Amino acid sequence: MNTRWKTRYLLATLLALPAAGVQAHLGGEPAHADFLTGLMHPLSGLDHLLAAFAAGLLAVRLGMPAYRSIPLVFLAMLGLGAWGGFSGIQLPVAGSVIALSVLVFGVLLASRNPIPGTAALALVATFAVFQGNTHALALPAEGLIAASIAGLIAMTGMLLAIGIMTGHALQRSARPHLLRIGGSFLAASGLVFLSGFQ
Q1: Residue 99 forms part of a structural domain
Q2: Nearest Cα to 131, choosing from 168, 112, 104, 107?
Q3: Does residue 24 sit within a domain?
Q4: Which of 24, 90, 188, 190 could bond 102 through an S-S bridge, CB–CB 3.0 to 4.6 Å?
Q5: Alpha helices in 87-111 (DSSP H)
Q6: Which residues are registered as beta bridge partners of 143?
Q7: Which of these, 123, 179, 140, 143, lies nearest to 10 by C-alpha position?
Q8: CA 109 from chain center: how many Å?
Q9: Three-state DSSP class for 63?
């Protein structure tokens, strides 16, 4: 499979994921937290999905050592934020912060000059905490909490991986500038999400 078709396949998979999340919720809101509810929840909102996808793209854009650090930091802080949410901690304006993360990641991807790795990690860590907290507050507070958090981390890890694979495919293609164009699209999406919180 050549690079062009790999890129198209990955993007088609990404676009199909929200539909999978909708199908998973057709039976109504779950009564108890478990691995499956955590696994499917990141697919229930396009802002959550794009934020994780964009973080994967950003890891590729910045290269080493951020390439390894960004996914690990994102998942660790997502888990921490989810644990806080299940413990009753509610971060303020979390929905707006997630929308802002899509905008910021998009701007960083579209920029000609990459952000320093330490600054990128600080942003990723902050946004991931808010994302994890929002997920947990939307899930049942009773049940297998640790399993639910594991599900959240597993699905978010897959979204990050799709972002990383897409970023590599774009960089290796005959048109690597598409990665920056994709960043512009993400930034515009973030603005649309933010307008919904006004």
Answers
A1: yes
A2: 104
A3: no
A4: 190
A5: 94-110
A6: 33
A7: 179
A8: 14
A9: coil
The single residue listed with the structure tokens 């949410």 is: 85
For 21, the 3-state DSSP assignment is helix
Helix (H, G, I), strand (E, B) or coil at 62: helix
Residue type, 105: F
| Contact in structure between 103 and 191 (CB atoms under 8 Å) | yes
User: Which candidate, 88, 97, 86, places its Cα nearest to that of 130?
Assistant: 97
Residue 44 pLDDT > 90, yes or no?
Answer: no
Q: What was the pLDDT predicted at 30? A: 55
Q: Taking all residues of the chain, what is their mean pLDDT, rounded to a whole number?
A: 82
Contacts of 30 (CB under 8 A, 6+ apart): 37, 139, 140
Whether 140 maps to a domain, the answer reads yes
Question: What are 45-100's pLDDT values in tens digits?
Answer: 888 899 999 999 999 988 888 888 999 999 999 999 999 999 989 998 888 999 99
Hey, what amino acid is at 74?
F
How many structural domains comprise the chain? 1
State the Cα–Cα distance between residues 151 and 58, nearest whole angstrom: 23
Domain interval for residue 108: 3-8+34-195
Residue 28 lies in a domain: no
